[in-house]
Structure to design on (472 residues):
């Protein structure tokens, strides 16, 4: 089956968590909104009544007649098909639980630069952003990093759940990559406390298909329209 | 199987979405953290290394040897067991997609009173809260209500997905109930635009086991420690 991923072109955003899974598995997929006319097609699909449930927002995935939205839900669907989730029910729920925690974390990253309204510009909420980012760097960032470090500490093979790399491992790679981009100073100070997390990031980056993807034009560069943004005022 | 739900006693919070599913299904469950010594037991379980993956935060559910965290993940697990999710894979993903959108919405409700830091008091972030709540009332609340109204408009039986009541319907009931509590003026103005959503709320509230639950002491009252809080300054 050929997968069609729909997400805003020009940013990594939430779509990147799906892209990493598709790329790592060598799946047959089309990054459909980046093709000419792709955004128009995406907007048409979002209005569609044919599917049982229209997406609230991108990303969404088309797989045959199925249309699936919400990043973690897409990965729940793709996991077993791409060999990126354990086979057991308990294992699948464990990986999904981790993915949903990453989704919460990512939401907090977004809100460091948009604490008041996603419909306003960063410049219109800079004072609140400074406050929220300071709290994020001081409390929330160490809390999330410490949590994933403790999960890795308890795991036998250095992956978050089970014996092999799952989509949650790929997503944790993306979190570290994004946080290094957005908060280089804070991460430089913090990283030595989370060696297993840092090692996982390096191990995922070295996976052959991930490495090939990261070096390709298919990987969009981090930028100040995405979720991870490098605003020095927010890095302390 | 007997289910053990662990969540902060004293507030409805995220645990309420799980409680509604257990109550509606007449499931055999213990609201474990509300029993004497329950919070201490909850904290012990969160530190446990025995489970594959420790929870990041409550709520979590114990079912036999399984320990499952993240509200939407718990409902994904319970859905088929409680008869609150479609049988087909596409149906299960549709309901889960809706639940994850409700989770996003709930996070935005929380941030109306805590836009800067969850570790600070509301009084310490009141100015930012006023701004965020104004944006929520003006843009986000109608956007989410409109989305669920459009999903209901496209559905044959007045439920969000499939032919019967799912856990997402119970959760949408809870959103309407909470929003009426927290934003009575904004909701009074908005509700007439979303008749299907309002009707769904009433239909869920009238389900015999839900009605019995709501009238029982098992239902914690809304209060200003929960996610839905009635702060008149935030209601415009």
């Amino acid at each position: 089956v050929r997968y069609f991923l729909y997400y805003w072109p020009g940013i990594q955003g939430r779509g990147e968590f799906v892209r990493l899974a598709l790329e790592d598995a060598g799946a047959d997929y089309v990054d459909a909104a980046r093709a000419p006319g792709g955004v128009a097609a995406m907007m048409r699909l979002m209005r569609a009544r044919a599917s049982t449930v229209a997406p609230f927002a991108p990303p969404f995935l088309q797989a045959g007649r199925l249309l699936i939205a919400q990043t973690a839900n897409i990965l729940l669907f793709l996991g077993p098909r791409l060999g990126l989730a354990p086979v057991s029910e308990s294992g699948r729920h464990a990986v999904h639980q981790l993915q949903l925690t990453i989704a919460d974390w990512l939401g907090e990253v977004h809100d460091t630069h948009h604490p008041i309204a996603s419909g306003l510009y960063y410049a219109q909420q800079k004072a609140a952003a400074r406050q929220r980012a300071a709290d994020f760097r001081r409390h929330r960032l160490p809390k999330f990093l410490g949590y994933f470090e403790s999960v890795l500490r308890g795991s036998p093979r250095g992956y978050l759940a089970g014996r092999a790399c799952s989509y949650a491992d790929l997503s944790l790679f993306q979190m570290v990559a994004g946080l290094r981009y957005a908060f280089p100073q804070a991460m430089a100070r913090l990283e030595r406390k989370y060696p297993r997390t840092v090692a996982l990031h390096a191990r995922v980056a070295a996976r052959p298909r991930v490495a090939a993807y990261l070096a390709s034009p298919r990987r969009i560069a981090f930028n100040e329209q995405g979720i991870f943004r490098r605003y020095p005022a927010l890095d302390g």
